[in-house]
């Protein structure tokens, strides 16, 4: 086993996330399926924040906290899974993390890890929350797996 810490792990830890390890639970959605729920053609944001807002980072953090709390993204221990940041993240798969700071996750990921976009999923695989960097706005997308067929 290598003693070299992967770049994605250093980036997550720089943001106040403790990496618990790769999560290969069968309850988690396939990474490609989750990506389409976040970035597919018909995806609509749950909230948007204009890049032009003077308080854009604070508003993004506020909306993220509100939406992810109501969606049930985190466990009571502040754990969730996210894709490893950077090249090859989809191949690495889901990483289980514990948020040691709890507040301001989007700002922390942007400033400390250089991530403008990220995707997280609850440890039970039922809900996905993501931030997408669009032309004029940041989008927050909340998606509940299993509800795709409800309208069919």
Outline the fold blueprint.
Blueprint: H1 7-14, E1 17-22, H2 31-39, E2 47-50, H3 56-71, E3 79-83, H4 89-92, E4 94-99, H5 105-113, E5 118-121, E6 127-133, E7 137-144
Antiparallel strand pairs: 1-4, 2-7, 3-4, 3-5, 5-6, 6-7
Report on the structure:
- The protein is an alpha+beta fold.
- The longest helix has 16 residues, at 56-71.
- The protein is globular, with a radius of gyration of 15 Å.
- It contains five helices and seven strands.
- The protein is 30% helix and 26% strand.
Strand order of the largest sheet: 1-4-3-5-6-7-2
Poorly predicted segments: none
Pattern of helices and strands = HEHEHEHEHEEE
Largest sheet: 7 strands, antiparallel
Number of strands: 7
Helix content: 25-40%
Span between termini: 47 Å
Q: Return the average pLDDT rounded to an integer.
A: 91
Number of alpha- plus pi-helical segments: 5
The general outline is globular
Percentage of residues in DSSP E strands: 25-35%
Radius of gyration: 15 Å
- Could you say which structural class the secondary elements and strand pairing correspond to? alpha+beta
């Amino acid at each position: 086993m290598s003693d070299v810490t992967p770049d994605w792990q250093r980036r997550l830890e720089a943001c106040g996330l403790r990496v618990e390890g790769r999560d290969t639970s069968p309850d988690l959605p396939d990474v490609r399926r989750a990506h389409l729920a976040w970035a597919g053609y018909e995806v609509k944001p749950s909230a948007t924040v204009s890049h032009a807002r003077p308080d854009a980072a604070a508003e993004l953090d506020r909306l993220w906290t509100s939406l992810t709390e109501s969606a049930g993204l985190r466990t009571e221990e502040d754990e969730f899974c996210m894709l490893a940041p950077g090249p090859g993240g989809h191949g690495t798969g889901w990483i289980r993390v514990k948020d040691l700071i709890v507040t301001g996750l989007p700002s922390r990921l942007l400033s400390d890890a250089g991530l403008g976009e990220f995707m997280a999923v609850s440890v039970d695989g039922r809900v996905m929350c993501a931030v997408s960097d669009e032309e004029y706005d940041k989008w927050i997308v909340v998606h509940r797996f299993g509800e795709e067929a409800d309208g069919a």
